[in-house]
Amino acid sequence: LAITGVSGAGKSTLLHILGLVDAPTGGRYLYDGRDTGLMAAGEKAFIRNREIGFVFQFYHLFPEFNVLGNVLMPAMVGSSALAWIGRRGEYRRRARELIDRVGLGHRALHRSTRLSGGEMQRVAIARALMNRPRLLLADEPSGNLDVSTSAAIHDLLFELWGEGGMTLV
């Protein structure tokens, strides 16, 4: 699904509502048949971490982490210490697969601050996919990129969507 409109029309606000980051100021938003206005903050946080992936225009990578650490972040945040220890190898394999998939296997141990804009956006996509989201929200994912890198980002997103099991907005 593509949402278009002029600057200031509310596209990002809508994505934030869909992603349970913000609440609507009127009406109701049903996520998977449940009224989000009745959900506790913890339930929203759980859904955001487990079922929704975000790709933002400005990447929001952690500069102190390398590519692998940035991609692993959703799994770390969504796991208890015991679960993390028990599944760390599985998570690392998944992160490595995603990093390879976005064409950055050779950069997995580089800090995010040493990457180009296109590379940072590909890291952000891999991170958004880490927990196998049902819903991927991409807010102008190529807005700061050159034309050819932008096309490559769009091709990658459509390829991932085409594999099924995920809604892309």
Protein model, in words:
This protein is mostly helical. 47% of the residues lie in helices and 8% in strands. It is built from six helices and five strands. Helix 3 (67-77) packs parallel to helix 5 (117-129) and helix 5 runs parallel beside helix 6. It is globular and about 45 Å long. The model has no long low-confidence stretch (mean pLDDT 90).
Helix/strand layout:
Elements: H1 11-18, E1 30-31, E2 34-35, H2 41-51, E3 52-55, H3 67-77, H4 81-101, H5 117-129, E4 135-138, H6 147-162, E5 167-168
Parallel strand pairs: 3-4, 4-5
Antiparallel strand pairs: 1-2
Helix pairs in contact: 3-4, 3-5, 4-5, 5-6
Radius of gyration: 16 Å
The backbone outline, from C-alpha atoms, is globular
Q: SSE order, as H and E? A: HEEHEHHHEHE
Helix tally equals 6
Question: What labels would you give this structure?
Answer:
two-stranded antiparallel ribbon, 169 residues, 8% strand, 3-stranded parallel sheet, mainly alpha, 6 helices
Short account of what is shown:
The chain is 47% helix and 8% strand. It is mainly alpha-helical and 169 residues long. Strand 1 (30-31) and strand 2 form a beta hairpin.
